[in-house]
Amino acid sequence: MCAKISVIITAYNIEEYIVECIESVQKQRFDGIEIICVDDASTDETWQIIEDHARSDSRIRLFRNDVNHGAAYSRNRGIQEARGKYIWIIDGDDLLGEGALNRLYNVAEENSLDLITFSGEAFVDKNLNTKKYNGRESAYRRNGAYNGIYTGPDLFCEFIRNHDITGNLVLQFIRRQLFIENNLYKSDNLRYADDSPFSIYMSAKRVACIPDVLYKRRFRTGSAVTSRLTMIKLESFMLAMTEDMKVWENTELSDSQNETIYSYFRWYCRCIQQTYHQLNTEEKEKNFSILKTHPMAEIILRYFVIGESVYPELSSAKLTEWKKNGTKINLYGAGAIAEDIADVLDRNGISEYSVIVSEKKVENQMFRGRKVYAINEINDEKRAAVTIVAVSKIHHDVIRRNLEKEGITNTVFIL
After folding, report:
1. What is the C-alpha separation between 39 and 63, in angstroms, rounded?
2. Widest pairwise Cα distance in the chain
3. Which uninterrupted H or E stretch holds 217?
4. How far is the C-alpha of 106 from the C-alpha of 369, rounded, in Å?
């Protein structure tokens, strides 16, 4: 017989908290639950503690990842193993409120709902500096009242208009078949930022928001909420946003709904930009890893958020080094490509450079207020400078030979 509710608990190195979480589920006075615990290759005693609890409670089903993958992978695995009519995905260091399962199941059944959302409350663990998180206890509470039954897009838009987005997946009680039919699994590569319920709302036909506070979020040292920002986190946020944007593009919505969701993604972009600027220098210099197989997300992050040059030959690191060292620069070319490269140099604070061409169009040719030199007019200093060749690729071979004849060999060709 299928369970009525599958509570999916994901865990990684939380030996101090996992018992309290499991017991908050076990104490629910509700018949027909299964407790699916997915351990993400913990290196402490978390797995052993879960096993001990499973021996005395047949409702607990255990799964363990061979290697550490992150929360998204563990959540996906738990959903795939679930047999309940409804699923509730929770974190193994948090707690369920008393009577939560009864309340959610009854509301869902009485109204034939795909999704119920509700409020949570935060509490600060004894090992965390409480001053930093004072006032954040209400961070997971809805501010507005949402009466009646909505479509998923309608309710999501109401949240946006009321500045009432609490996007955590742990605050969603979901009909499992909705998840499966619409393939709502998150990318397994997401190590953070896998909490966005956007795709669920876009798929749901019948949704309700109840005012009850049914979830208890723990702020603790080392959690995803409190740990320092890293490039991996930023990449996860970027991938999550682009996946949500793909869902948006494939969802039929009214003009009003599209306008509202447009504002949501503008807010999302601001959050990502702020996250990048909060990274320390060491993190900013790390190479992309999560996005290696997600080119759209990488392009947007690299060139529109971080603001790297669209010319890989002129990386931010190289331009910074040139500026720091006072490197002399020639810009070869005076057309459209050269205009682009001049913009790149200006944005990176490089204002001192010479402009050269093979042959001048007129004797006093100028480029952005600078004198243009023909190759045969340049002196030894310019001959020794780095020469950026900013012309069409089809002319590169001829230009390379002409430059070499003039003793100009320190060149960077823009492809």
Report:
1. 6
2. 92
3. strand 207-219
4. 74
Cα 80-84-86 angle, rounded to 5 deg: 95
Which residue bears the tokens 């006093």? 364
The pLDDT tens digits for 174-225 are 999 999 999 999 988 887 777 889 999 999 999 999 999 999 999 876 555 5
Whole-angstrom Cα distance, residue 404 to residue 379? 15
Vertex 188 angle, CA 183 and 193, to 5°: 95
Which amino acid is residue 401, in one-letter code? R
What's the token pair of residue 204? 């749901």
Amino acid letter, residue 276: Y
DSSP 54-70: HHT-TTEEEEE-SS---
AA letter at 112: S
Cα separation, 93 vs 128, in Å, equals: 14
pTM beyond cutoff 0.85 = no
Report DSSP state, residue 352: -
Distance CA 340, CA 371 (A): 18
In 10 A of CB 34, how many CB atoms?
20
